Amino acid sequence: MNAVSPQRLPGAISVVVVEDEPLFRDLLVRALLGQVPGATVTGSFATGEIALEHLASIPIDILLSDIDLGRGMTGVELGIEVRRHFAARGVVLLSNLSQPELLTRIPTDVQGGWSYLLKRNISNIDQLGAALHSAATGEITIDSEIIAGAEITRDGPMGSLTSRQIEVLAMVATGLSNQRVAEELHVGVRTVESSMSLILTQLGLTPNDGISPRVAAVLAYLGAYTDGRA
Asked: Which of 131, 161, 166, 187 could form a Cys-Cys staple with 141, CB 3.0–4.6 A?
């Protein structure tokens, strides 16, 4: 176990890392998170059980956890506990597997503010930073490699959407803002805003239980997700 007490800067995001592989945990704490603007590591632990013993005494905005923590609780189970009983605003999950649809099974009382990254892409600092910051604001970011390889089942809610609407939703799922989506598609931001509004209407999504329609739309996308490379 390692708990640290750095000086926190205004607007900083305090990150607690839980990872059972010591070398990978050190990589996260010592090399990668220090490159994310605003991120401050306040603790690092090998298991969820050990982390829970110490979280009452250290700041935590974001839990950054491997899903597979060996014996004991998983990163998902830990994330639910942390969201329910501590001041954490969000959870970023790490995995060797492409299974982002598990976010659709998170209990509704803690459903916003979860992101999912592949461990092999963790050195992508921009993506790591986006996942941390979007989770802190209750949004969702899915690893861009996962989304690039995704296929969407069209016999459910996604069946009402056009291919371009699904493309827009996929970009939103990677954490892109409407402005960034507009830049990628070479259209005006109002065009993207109108597209998102229509997507939400067609999916029948409205604010519910504190979860934004934008998050609900991403969860609907993940509910129709299959790994196109499987």
From this structure: 131
Residue 190 has pLDDT above 60, yes or no: yes
**Domain locations along the chain:** 2-143, 149-227
Q: Phi first, then psi: what are they for 63, rounded to 5°?
A: -95, 125
What tokens appear for 36 in the block? 């994310």
Alpha-carbon distance 227 to 100, whole Å? 10
User: What integer pLDDT is reported at residue 78 of this predicted model?
Assistant: 97
The Cα 48–Cα 78 span in angstroms is 6
Q: What is the pLDDT of residue 186?
A: 95
Domain 149-227 falls in which CATH fold? Arc Repressor Mutant, subunit A (1.10.10)
Reduce the secondary structure of the chain to three states and give it as a string: CEECCCCCCCCCEEEEEECCCHHHHHHHHHHHHHHCCCEEEEEEECCHHHHHHHHHHCCCCEEEEECCCCCCCCHHHHHHHHHHHCCCCEEEEEECCCCHHHHHHCCHHHCCCEEEEEHHHCCCHHHHHHHHHHHHCCCCCECHHHHHCEEECCCCHHHHCCHHHHHHHHHHHCCCCHHHHHHHHCCCHHHHHHHHHHHHHHHCCCCECCECHHHHHHHHHHHCEEECCC
Share of the chain above pLDDT 90, in %: 77
Mean pLDDT of 106-114: 91
